[in-house]
Design brief:
14 strands; 13% strand; alpha/beta; Rossmann fold; Arc Repressor Mutant, subunit A
């Protein structure tokens, strides 16, 4: 080791570098978010949700797409257990999967908070009631006489969670309500968690995709026995920073398996500087109207099997619009401009049927009319356009994501240093081959974020990075 290296290490020991700042700096260098023109979000296409969307966007000072995604996802959660919808291929669930990309400070929590406010209040009350029911159940068990039948345990009432493993979600659907939602405004924890680790992604994607398709769970475990659940419904809304999502967005396996093509995505333009503007959502007539409808839907008892819930039909005009859209997306996805995102284009018509069903159910309509379908098609068009932007502009850059993951791993080690052989053996799963390791190190070196010498790699602190 050179004298310069000795001096640097001595200086680091005296003034330990800030790891969080180093990772932030590395992310900015590896995954710069360039200037882009985001498509205009079709707020009026939201129908019964449009007024609340405009109010949240204006007064919470968030982009309309951020507010719209949050409201549409919440509406899906509320109606998916109560109704199904007619599509061109038969009955379909009203479950929607949504993904929203937004930087820290862009209002993800504010928009999500308004959209889910009544659900959280309902769940808080249900939690207290469930605790009382469990206590009564325990008392009944303690006084049970020999030969008496055991009383049935109260069913879990919960409908909303911030994070969930596949196994945890299966248990909740088996023992709890047929309608569940996984909503997180910090979805990096989900996408970086065990379930989305490279070795588990296929299983996780397969489970979520199956629930989106039909709501059927069928699992057999050596220790856990057999679990069959029909008529389950799961809605997802994950909000995440673009850089944190890049690795999983760029995983070709998840697209080939149809996981990401089942998501409606939004990537709003960066938020403009905000003004100090206190706002109480409960004083907005549009938000109060939205909350009233949420309360009405939450008061409706859920069936055990949502497959048996009423079907919202398509009026002739809506069916004609959807049929023409189906043929257009078929042509464009197989032979036209949408070939780079073919799996997304081929699901557009079904997505539109689901969105139209959600909007109709939330509004209390008995059928999807042409105007509602027209709005749903505009919302799906926005999503498909955004997916195309992500592919074209490299937001799903796996090479950069692998390099960042390696940098994070190195900075968690003593002296921010590891032998090259150790990277392959013990490093991040994405760099456990010599080729991916070397490519990641090459990218880090290009940006001055790592020094490789004597068979070892050392991550460099922010003040060592060339401006």
């Amino acid at each position: 080791m050179s004298a310069a290296d000795d001096l640097r290490r001595a200086a680091d020991a005296a003034n330990p570098p800030d790891r969080a700042d180093a990772i932030r700096r590395a992310r900015e260098l590896l995954m710069p978010v360039g200037e882009r023109t985001a498509p205009e979000y079709p707020v009026d296409a939201l129908g019964p949700l449009a007024g609340a969307c405009k109010a949240v966007a204006q007064h919470a000072q968030v982009q309309p797409a951020m507010a719209g995604q949050c409201l549409l996802a919440a509406a899906s959660l509320l109606v998916q257990g109560l109704f199904n919808v007619e599509s061109l291929a038969g009955r379909r669930p009203l479950s929607l999967f949504l993904l929203t990309l937004g930087d820290s400070g862009d209002g993800k929590s504010a928009a999500q908070g308004v959209a889910l406010a009544r659900v959280h209040e309902w769940q808080r009350r249900a939690t207290a009631e469930h605790a009382a029911e469990l206590a009564a159940h325990e008392r009944a068990l303690s006084t049970l006489t020999k030969g008496s039948d055991k009383p049935e345990a109260p069913r879990s009432p919960y409908r909303l969670m911030r994070d969930a493993t596949v196994e945890g979600l299966r248990r909740e659907l088996s023992a709890g309500a047929c309608s569940q939602g996984v909503f997180s405004d910090e979805a990096a924890a989900i996408l970086s968690g065990c379930g989305m680790a490279p070795e588990h992604r296929a299983k996780t994607a397969g489970t979520f995709s199956g629930l989106w398709d039909s709501g059927h769970l069928s699992v057999s475990r050596a220790m856990g026995g057999r679990a069959e659940r029909y008529g389950a419904r799961v809605a997802l809304h994950w909000l995440i920073q673009p850089q944190a999502a890049s690795e999983t967005l760029g995983d070709p396996l998840l697209s080939q398996l149809g996981f990401w093509p089942r998501f409606l995505i939004a990537w709003p333009a960066p938020q403009e500087p905000r003004q100090y503007q206190p706002w109480e959502p409960g004083k907005s007539p549009d938000v109060r109207g939205y909350w009233r409808r949420c309360d009405e839907l939450l008061a409706c008892p859920l069936p055990d099997d949502a497959d048996l819930a009423p079907v919202i039909d398509l009026e002739d005009g809506a069916r004609d619009l959807l049929g023409r859209a189906f043929e257009w997306y078929e042509r464009q996805s197989r032979r036209g401009d949408l070939r780079p995102i073919k799996p997304f284009g081929l699901r557009a018509a079904e997505q539109a049927a689901r969105v139209a069903g959600v909007l109709a159910a939330f509004e209390g309509l008995p059928a999807v009319d042409a105007n509602t379908m027209r709005g749903a098609l505009r919302l799906v068009e926005y999503s498909v356009s955004t997916w195309r932007t992500i592919v074209d502009e490299g937001a799903a850059d796996q090479a950069a994501a692998h390099a960042l993951r390696l940098f994070e791993w190195l900075t968690a080690r003593p002296d921010w240093r590891a032998r090259l052989a150790s990277v392959v053996k013990d490093g991040p799963a994405s760099t456990r081959s010599k080729s991916t390791r070397d490519r990641a190190l090459e990218l880090l070196a290009e940006h001055g974020l790592v020094h490789v010498a004597d068979g070892a790699a050392t991550a460099l602190a922010p003040d060592e990075v060339e401006p």
